[in-house]
């Protein structure tokens, strides 16, 4: 039974209690991992839900950004949501998430995104599927040695400025990529499960064309071992060829290469054989928090010009509800109240449309967009 006795506040003196609850809830009881997590996310970005002085759970959010339509949009990366089993089903989680979303809306943060432990819960707060994170594995024997002309530089502690320079070029080309905080970079460079990484910068240091972060393995599991990348980005065909050569040159101790990539990954395209397996595929979820900010800051096709009339239902953040007119001229948008509401949807349906995960006509086929004007549906399909 829900009870209206919870309050949300900054977690300060209760970090150990939060670590205990999170360790139980998220199956990670190592306190050192949670201390590192708090340092990376920042204490100011931790929120707890309390009943009186007793902590019932908590969550955090990275103040990052995501790329959509070639533009960088501020985004809260929600993480570490954990409620004590004794308080589940009581309304504690609902109070926590509703309060944090309202706080972010008050700061005009356009978007929030997360990986959901339970989709049903987050859908009830307006989140919906917006993209995927896919991990692949390929035998190194399927990656032949390519051109080694491009220089490669090896680092145990790479410059974040250099990584950001490469990642930014890569990120703006497709939707949903992160602009990482220092804490998010450290998650890739110093994985929480332990172990070290080596980073290779591809190309000249004054104009890098790519990088790959490789997690170092040990002989404890025997030889050969998989070669695991925590992150990579390549921005030119020569950089991709040099990456292939670098992977190939680990073959004396490693028999497979594991990495995260998009559904149509160039590593798959150029593989000699089709023996590529998907080892994990997680869908991330998006929530539009500030609708006019999100729509106006997004980029659109420079050749597109048109006006879309939305009617949005948002029971949680009512400021988003109502009719909105989106006008796009040469890829730049303006948003204001009004219009005829020809495209009607819940705020959830806006997430996969916004991220281009689903087209407008596909969402209409699913019944989550209701259109009174076929031309508007066609325009929405083109615009996003």
List the SSEs and their pairings.
Elements: E1 6-10, H1 15-25, H2 31-41, E2 46-51, E3 54-68, E4 71-83, H3 92-106, E5 111-115, H4 119-123, E6 128-139, E7 152-155, H5 160-171, E8 178-179, H6 182-189, E9 197-204, E10 207-215, E11 225-234, H7 237-248, E12 254-261, H8 266-270, E13 277-288, H9 291-297, E14 305-313, E15 322-329, E16 332-337, E17 343-346, H10 347-354, H11 360-365, E18 369-371, H12 374-383
Helix pairs in contact: 1-2, 2-6
Structure characterization notes:
The protein has helices spanning 15-25, 31-41, 92-106, 119-123, 160-171, 182-189, 237-248, 266-270, 291-297, 347-354, 360-365, 374-383, and strands at residues 6-10, 46-51, 54-68, 71-83, 111-115, 128-139, 152-155, 178-179, 197-204, 207-215, 225-234, 254-261, 277-288, 305-313, 322-329, 332-337, 343-346, 369-371. Helix 3 links the parallel strand 4 and strand 5. The protein is of the alpha+beta class and 384 residues long. The chain starts with 5 loop residues before the first strand and ends with a helix.
Please summarize what this structure is.
The chain has 384 residues and is an alpha+beta fold. 29% of the residues lie in helices and 36% in strands.
């Amino acid at each position: 039974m829900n009870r209206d006795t919870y309050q949300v506040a900054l977690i300060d003196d209760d970090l150990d209690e939060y670590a205990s609850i999170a360790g139980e809830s998220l199956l990670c009881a190592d306190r050192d991992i949670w201390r590192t997590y708090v340092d990376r996310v920042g204490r100011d970005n931790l929120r707890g839900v309390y009943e009186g002085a007793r902590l019932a759970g908590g969550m955090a959010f990275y103040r990052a950004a995501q790329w959509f339509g070639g533009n960088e949009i501020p985004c809260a990366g929600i993480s570490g949501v954990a409620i004590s089993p004794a308080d589940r089903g009581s309304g504690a989680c609902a109070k926590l998430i509703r309060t944090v979303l309202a706080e972010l809306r008050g700061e005009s943060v356009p978007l929030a995104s997360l990986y959901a432990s339970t989709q049903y819960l987050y859908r009830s707060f307006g989140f919906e599927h917006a993209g995927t994170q896919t991990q692949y594995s390929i035998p190194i024997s399927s990656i032949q040695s390519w051109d080694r002309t491009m220089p490669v530089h090896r680092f145990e502690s790479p410059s974040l400025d250099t990584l950001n320079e490469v990642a930014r070029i890569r990120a703006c080309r497709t939707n949903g990529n992160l602009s990482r905080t220092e804490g998010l970079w450290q998650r890739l460079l110093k994985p929480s499960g332990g172990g070290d990484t080596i980073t290779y910068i591809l190309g000249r240091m004054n104009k890098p064309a790519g990088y790959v972060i490789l997690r170092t393995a040990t002989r404890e599991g025997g030889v050969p071992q998989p070669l695991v990348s925590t992150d990579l980005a390549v921005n030119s065909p020569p950089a991709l060829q040099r990456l292939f050569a670098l992977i190939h040159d680990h073959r004396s101790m490693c028999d497979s290469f594991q990495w995260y990539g998009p559904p149509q990954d160039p590593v798959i395209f150029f593989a000699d054989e089709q023996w590529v397996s998907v080892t994990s595929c997680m869908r991330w979820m998006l929530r539009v928090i500030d609708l006019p900010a999100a729509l106006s800051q997004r980029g659109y096709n420079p050749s597109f010009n048109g006006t879309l009339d939305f009617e949005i239902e948002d029971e949680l953040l009512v400021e988003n509800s109502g009719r909105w007119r989106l006008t796009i001229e040469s890829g730049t948008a303006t948003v204001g109240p009004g219009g005829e509401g020809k495209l009607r949807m819940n705020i959830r349906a806006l997430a996969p449309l916004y991220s281009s995960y689903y087209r407008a006509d596909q969402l209409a086929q699913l019944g989550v967009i209701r259109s009174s004007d076929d031309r508007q549906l066609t325009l929405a399909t083109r615009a996003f």
